[in-house]
Design brief:
The complex is a heterodimer of chains A (112) and B (116). By secondary structure, chain A is mainly β. Chain A contains no helices and 11 strands. In chain A, strands 2, 4, 5, 6, 9, 10 and 11 form a 7-stranded mixed sheet that branches. The mean pLDDT of chain A is 94. Chain B is mostly beta strands and 116 residues long. In chain B, a hairpin with a 5-residue loop joins strand 5 and strand 6. The relative contact order of chain B is 0.33. The chains are: A mainly beta (112), B mainly beta (116). Chains A and B meet through strand 5, strand 9 and strand 10 of A and strand 6, strand 10 and strand 11 of B.
Chain lengths: 112, 116
C-alpha cells in the first residue's frame, strides 16, 4: 500500500466550527489531492497541490482551503463547517501527472 | 463543461459470467481516460488508463477497456467475474490537460454485485 495516512478517520462536528483534515505521505510524491465522495456524485476534486506551497482549485473548492508547507503533508481546512460538507474525504498522491493516483482510506466527516 | 456518465448505478452478475460497465464522456478532444475500483471501506485503485494509441487497453485483475472515439465511450470489460470483483467502479476523465496536475472528473460509479 502507498504510504498515505489520513487523520482523523472519523469526525463529528457542529455547524460553524473549523475543521482541519490532514494527509501525510511517506512516498515523497510531488502531487497531492483532496477529493470528496458523495453518493451519486463519484469523487469531486476540491484542491490539489503540485509542489510545496503550490496549490490549485478543483471543481468544488468553495468553503475549503488547503496548505502544503512541506512535501509530506497536505492539509484541508473547512473554515466554518456546514451540513453540506458532510462527506467522505479522500486524499490521493501521485509521483507524476499521468493520472495514476494512490488513495488514502478516507476521512468521514459529519457536520451536525 | 466536462462530464462523465456511468448509466448503470447497480449491476448484478453471476460468478463466472462476463461483465461490461459503460462509461460515456463529454469533452472537446480526446481526453485521458481511467477506470478505478473501490472496495468497501477503501480508497480507489487504478485498474487501467488510456492516453493514446491502441484503443483496447489491458489493466490489472484481468480487466480491459475499449476506447471508441465515435461513441465517446470507454467501456470496461472482464470475461469471467470472480466474487472478489464485487466493488464500485468509477470511470474518470482528465478534465484539464494543461493543468499542472491531474484534474480528474469522475462518473457517479457503478456498484457490482457478484452472485455465487
Amino acid at each position: 500500500d502507498a504510504g498515505i495516512t489520513q487523520s482523523p478517520r472519523h469526525k463529528v462536528t457542529e455547524t460553524g466550527t473549523p475543521v482541519t483534515l490532514r494527509c501525510h505521505q511517506t512516498e515523497n510524491h510531488r502531487y497531492m489531492y483532496w477529493y470528496r465522495q458523495d453518493p451519486g456524485h463519484g469523487l469531486r476534486l476540491i484542491h490539489y497541490s503540485y509542489g510545496v506551497k503550490d496549490t490549485d482549485k478543483g471543481e468544488v473548492s468553495d468553503g475549503y482551503s488547503v496548505s502544503r508547507s512541506k512535501t509530506e503533508d497536505f492539509l484541508l481546512t473547512l473554515e466554518s463547517a456546514t451540513s453540506s460538507q458532510t462527506s467522505v474525504y479522500f486524499c490521493a498522491i501521485s509521483p507524476t501527472n499521468t493520472g495514476e493516483l494512490f488513495f488514502g482510506e478516507g476521512s468521514r466527516l459529519t457536520v451536525l | 463543461a466536462q462530464s462523465v456518465t456511468q448509466p448503470d448505478i447497480h449491476i448484478t452478475v453471476s460468478e463466472g459470467a462476463s461483465l461490461e460497465l459503460r462509461c460515456n464522456y463529454s469533452y472537446g478532444a480526446t481526453p485521458y481516460l481511467f477506470w478505478y475500483v473501490q472496495s468497501p471501506g477503501q480508497g480507489l485503485q487504478l485498474l487501467l488508463k488510456y492516453f493514446s494509441g491502441d484503443t483496447l487497453v489491458q489493466g490489472i485483475k484481468g480487466f480491459e477497456a475499449e476506447f471508441k472515439r465515435s461513441q465517446s465511450s470507454f467501456n470496461l470489460r472482464k470475461p469471467s467475474v470472480h466474487w472478489s470483483d464485487a466493488a464500485e467502479y468509477f470511470c474518470a476523465v482528465d478534465s484539464d490537460l494543461k493543468a499542472a496536475g491531474n484534474k480528474l472528473t469522475f462518473g457517479g460509479g457503478t456498484r457490482v454485485l457478484v452472485k455465487p
